Amino acid sequence: MADIRTQATWKSLAKPLAVAAFVVAVMAPDGRLSLTLAQSVGPSGCVKFCNGQPGSSGGGGGAGCAGPSGGAYHGSTTHSYNPQASSHFNNQGVAAYRRGDYREAAGLFEHAVESNSGNQTARRNLGDAYQQLGRQAARQGNEAGALSYYEKALKYKDTGDLRDSVATLRRRLGGSGKSCGLCGKALHSDVTYGYNSSASLMTYIVQSENNYLNCTNGFLASCKQSCGYALKTGLWRCKRSFHSSPSGYKGCVGQYLSQTC
Asked: Do 76 and 67 touch, CB atoms closer than 8 A?
């Protein structure tokens, strides 16, 4: 399975090695693989790859790589135990991470973990993606958002630099660094950034909403009169009303951004 740090780059393998690799894929108890097998074998007896992930276009770049059900990855899905899907989502996440699209990467790594909670490679990758999102938020001056992302990263990779970042932000923000107001401002800042710069706005906002829920964990009910809660509710309405219209969705999001926080 691809890791952010190292990823198999072989474009083809002879059939015997392909069969052996498939056996390893089936037998590995934690779902970790050094490569992902394609869904078909070419006429030369070689296994086709698409950026290390199964696809229909053979070796080469990510273009044409389909999701586990044949379509591109879109939005949230609940997965049962499926190591093959987990490997595939992880590899797609690695590609998004390398493009610098950390929100897309985080969403894909989340699906990889949901498909196989024992996939330790995907769990580490998810922690890395959350850490990058925290750094982005910190650079934007969104300290409450950065703290929430760092705390989520700690669940998947417990490192000294992450613990130091969390401790520093908690001291700076006071106590846990959490309040309805701060979490709401973090959501507004997060969504505004995505609105102005992200090509995949809906995916971006899904991660922003999840971070708001993490930020308000334990006291969300007390935030129902806050601007952050109003914005979250508005974002949900936008998704429900314009899920198939990107331009309509963006216009709706922009309206709620201008009315809240």
From this structure: no
State the Cα–Cα distance between residues 68 and 92, nearest whole angstrom: 11
Residue 72 is given by DSSP the state -
Residue with tokens 């059939």: 15
> Which residues make beta-bridge pairs with 84?
none
Domain assignment present for 247 = yes
Domain count, the chain: 1
34: amino acid identity, one letter:
S
Question: Considering the domain boundaries, does residue 92 fall inside one?
Answer: no
Query: pTM, whole model, 2 decimals?
Result: 0.58
Q: In which residue are the tokens 């190591």 written?
A: 83
Q: Dihedral, CA atoms, 212, 217, 219, 220, nearest 10 degrees?
A: 40
AA letter at 83: P
What is the number of other CB atoms lying within 10 angstroms of the CB of residue 163?
12
Instruction: Kindly report, residue by residue over 31-53, the tens digit of the pLDDT.
Output: 333 233 222 223 333 222 233 33
